[in-house]
Design a protein that fits this description.
Helix content: 25-40%
Bound molecules: NADP nicotinamide-adenine-dinucleotide phosphate
Mean pLDDT: 94
Number of strands: 6
CATH architecture of one domain: Alpha-Beta Barrel
Strand order of the largest sheet: 1-2-3-4-5-6
Radius of gyration: 19 Å
Largest sheet: 6 strands, parallel
Order of helices and strands: EHEHEHEHEHEHHHH
Shape: globular
CATH superfamily of one domain: NADP-dependent oxidoreductase domain
Distance between the termini: 38 Å
Structural class: alpha/beta
CATH topology of one domain: TIM Barrel
């Protein structure tokens, strides 16, 4: 498969309120993007809480199929390109969840399916079940950044062995790996300044700031921004299909695209980064 250069990722419950991000995207799609549908990779997920009761969360067949139907309705689409199961469900048999993904592909609701936040062993099991059903597990969406390296010991190798792509999220540690918090202040309107969301002021510790400042020196010596270096660092693994960026401003997207000007690292730069991250 050849990857389109434009990948848009949504999730059933993005908001607030849940579903509103997909509704907004549906309006943009109808107004601006419709002529470009075949150039876009549009995806959605389900696996976290979307509505009350046991069928609005986790990994049952009932939840995944009805949630995707609702997502398609909100976005005004007939199908998504990739549909992900968002997290492993300890209660629902993995077979049921994978059968639901297989059904979703066969019914035309999605062209491909993937998984997110699955550890290595569960990824292997999920890929095997899907393969036996005749559907490929196309891609995995794990969190990965200089500050969260859980994928390195096992998952990346598993993906390589299973022939599954990888598109990591939160590569900038939600903005921490940019020049935004370098001086220790929390700018108004930034993610850390907001009551909702996962980046809390308490996460911006002195230890993190010391590391970010040292990393920024290396980025400057490479003539790129810290965000660009952090994205290039994630993409240094050959198994990375792409990287997922979040942005609150157009300039942040432009900054991210500038990463493509310098993707390579010298062995010395990588070693310096290792020392800082230890
Ligand atoms: N599968 C999952 O479980 C899961 C979980 C979380 C996210 N995701 C997906 O992954 C995407 C990316 O995650 P993320 O948003 O956490 O990624 P991220 O790239 O780590 O953080 C993005 C945030 O960093 C700040 N930023 C980005 N570029 C910047 C720049 N050049 N200079 C200064 N600040 C910059 C912005 O925050 P400000 O608002 O402060 O400007 C932006 O919203 C999400 O949009 C979502 O689609 C998936």
């Amino acid at each position: 498969m050849i990857w389109a250069s434009r990948i848009l990722i949504w999730l059933n419950n993005y908001g607030p309120p849940p579903g509103s991000a997909e509704e907004t995207f549906g309006q943009v799609m109808a107004k601006d993007l419709k002529p470009y549908r075949d150039e876009l990779i549009i995806s959605s997920k389900a696996g976290y809480t979307m509505w009350d009761g046991p069928y609005g969360d986790w990994g049952s067949r009932k939840y995944l199929i009805s949630s995707l139907d609702q997502s398609l309705n909100r976005m005004g689409l007939e199908y998504v390109d990739i549909f992900y199961h968002h997290r492993p469900d300890p209660e629902t048999p993995l077979e049921e969840t994978m059968r639901a993904l297989d059904h979703i592909v066969r019914s035309g609701r999605a062209l491909y399916v993937g998984i997110s936040n699955y550890p290595a062993e569960k990824t292997r099991e999920a890929a095997k079940i899907l393969r036996e059903l005749g559907t490929q597990c196309l891609i995995h969406q794990p969190v990965y950044s200089m500050f969260n390296r859980w994928v390195e010991p096992e998952l990346l190798n598993t993906l390589k062995e299973e022939g599954i792509g990888c598109i990591p999220f939160s590569p900038l540690a939600q903005g921490l790996l940019t020049n935004k918090y370098l001086g220790g202040n929390i700018p108004e309107g930034s993610r850390a300044s907001k009551a909702h969301g996962f980046l809390k002021p308490a996460n911006i510790t002195n230890d993190k700031l010391a590391k970010v400042n040292k990393l920024n020196e290396i980025a400057q010596s490479r003539e790129q921004t810290l965000a660009q270096m952090a994205l290039a660092w994630v993409l240094r693994h050959k198994c990375m299909t792409s990287v997922l960026i979040g942005a609150s401003k157009v300039e942040q997207i432009e900054d991210a695209v500038g990463t493509l000007n310098r993707l390579d690292f010298t062995a010395e730069e990588l070693e310096q980064i290792e020392v800082i991250l230890k």
